[in-house]
Design goal:
Distance between the termini: 17 Å
Strand order of the largest sheet: 11-10-9-8-7-6-2-1-22
Radius of gyration: 24 Å
CATH class of the largest domain: Alpha Beta
């Protein structure tokens, strides 16, 4: 058995005397997401440490051991207790599994790593839709952090429920951070991004104050702590939407700038196609495979329809790069046949001659008819996978810069022979309607676990992401959650 550090032992004794023993339940839904039920926040953190170690032990330990403490922790006593309990939960798992090769983790490691993680917040494609633009009259948020699907820091999804403190949290955080930092409670949804400076010594206190806030003024008070320097976007159940960078509300919505101005314009243009949005249609927007500005190419190609039957397929295309779309693959091949720099253009350049277009159409048509399998579609070439997986899955959408194709569904592809393999992009999309009760859906790509033998290694990639959908979070609905369990664990803290 591992010998606990004196500090950790004192903390556990203190926690025990203050709260007495409590039962912590980890209920895993059918995609392996841990829903942690405890009496106190320290108890929930204990469960979170255990669950993270169970799912991603190696990444967790690499993260925590790579961080370097630069100054004495200045955390509040409450947050220090949460951190110590999280460390104890990790160590409990390591002890139970006789992992003699793994030295225990300490609270100092967790604090140091959390400062690094919160100082390098994920890039994010967030959207806030105000009450005037949603059918229900509530704020709806798309929280959409991006990461590599093999990164140690890719988001970890969890839900917290504490009966004594009446805290309910749903969201994600980098592995090694004890509680969700991007997500929602019953009143507030919070997205983060664009962080470029290291976080302050009390970053965890600020993150906690924000994710547990009940209204916008409480969030703004937390922001004044100035410990996390990224930009946050906040929606509330009172109907407010707020951007900490000072961006103005336009057309009843806020759209975080994405990788480029054109990608922000793409999402805004899509959202302007109707005045008011039902929840499910907003889910569709989050995973949309509509190719931005493809209609401008269709308009240019119409004049060649009498010469090429291939053109009829392209001009009749619905402009969605779905995995099963034959037309989307044909469009990609046509764009690539143009050659650089024209192939990378979102719209037909004025300098592009008719002869260049004719040559590209002939080349693309020849590829479709003689070089590819019969009825080859977008998913024949564009697929997704992760390290350690024995298979790849057809996928639609993505960012293909060399072909001037971008969609709201963000996937970064790498060449692998003749295939294009997605290895990162949208990784923890959450769609939240701040209604009463809360309505929310989420996906964690490719899956909760890092263990290839786990059933939750890439199940969300295969069963959800490839189909452009998400799963229910069962937020605040334990009765419904218990109909969809894949596992249950009880711990005594």
């Amino acid at each position: 058995m591992r010998v606990l550090s004196p500090g950790l032992l004192i903390c556990l004794v203190t926690a025990s005397s203050a709260y007495a023993a409590e039962t912590v339940e980890i209920l895993r839904d059918n995609f392996g997401t841990p829903h942690i039920f405890a009496r106190t926040s320290a108890g929930a953190a204990y469960g979170a440490g255990y669950a993270q170690a169970e799912d991603r032990k190696d990444a967790l330990l690499r993260n925590l051991r790579s961080a370097t403490a630069t100054e004495q922790s200045a955390l509040s006593p409450r947050m220090q207790g949460i951190v110590e309990a999280f460390a104890a939960g990790v160590n409990r798992f390591l002890d139970e599994h006789s992992d003699s090769a793994s030295a225990g983790v300490t609270s100092a490691m967790i604090v140091a790593y959390s400062r690094e993680a919160l100082g390098k917040m994920y890039s994010s494609n967030d959207v806030l839709i105000g009450p005037a633009r949603s059918i229900s009259g509530n704020v709806v948020a798309i929280l959409d952090p991006l990461s590599g699907w093999n990164d140690d820091t890719r988001p970890y999804e969890m839900r917290w429920y504490t009966s004594e403190e009446r805290i309910a949290l749903s969201g994600v955080a980098p592995v090694g951070v004890p509680f969700p930092v991007i997500g929602h409670n019953g009143s507030v949804a919070i997205g983060w991004g664009e962080s470029v400076e290291s976080a302050g010594a009390r970053a965890l206190d600020q993150a906690w104050a924000m994710i547990t806030a009940r209204n916008l003024s409480a969030v703004q008070e937390a922001l004044r702590m100035g410990q996390i320097h990224g930009v946050s976007m906040i929606g509330t159940s009172q109907g407010e939407i707020f951007d900490s960078s000072g961006r103005m509300l336009n057309d009843g919505m806020l759209v975080r700038p994405r990788n480029s101005q054109s990608s922000e314009e793409m999402v805004r243009k899509l959202l302007l196609t109707q005045n008011r949005w039902p929840f499910q249609r907003i889910v569709d927007v989050a995973f949309s495979t509509t190719v931005y500005q493809a209609e401008t190419w269709q308009a240019r190609l119409v004049k060649f329809a009498s010469e090429f039957r291939f053109v009829q397929m392209l001009t009749g295309w619905d402009r969605r790069a779905d995995a099963a779309s034959v037309e989307a693959l044909a469009f990609y091949l046509f764009k690539m046949a143009l050659g650089q720099p024209e192939s990378a253009a979102l719209e037909p350049p004025g300098s592009l001659s008719d002869n260049r277009i004719r040559a590209a159409l002939r080349k693309a048509q020849d590829q479709v008819e003689t070089q590819l399998p019969y009825r080859a579609d977008y998913g024949t070439m564009f697929r997704m996978t992760r390290d350690g997986s024995s298979q790849s899955t057809p996928v639609g959408g993505g960012i293909v810069t060399e072909a001037g194709m971008i969609t709201p569904r963000a996937i970064n592809f790498q060449h692998a022979g003749q295939a294009m393999l997605g290895r990162g992009g949208q990784s923890a999309t959450q769609i939240v309607e701040l209604s009463s009760p809360i309505r929310s859906m989420s996906i964690l790509v490719p899956g909760e676990s890092d263990r290839p033998e786990s059933g939750h290694f890439d199940d969300q990639a295969r069963e959800l992401f490839s189909k452009g959908t998400a799963k229910s979070t069962y937020f605040g609905d334990r009765k419904e959650l218990e109909k969809h369990l894949s596992g249950k664990k009880e711990l005594i803290f």
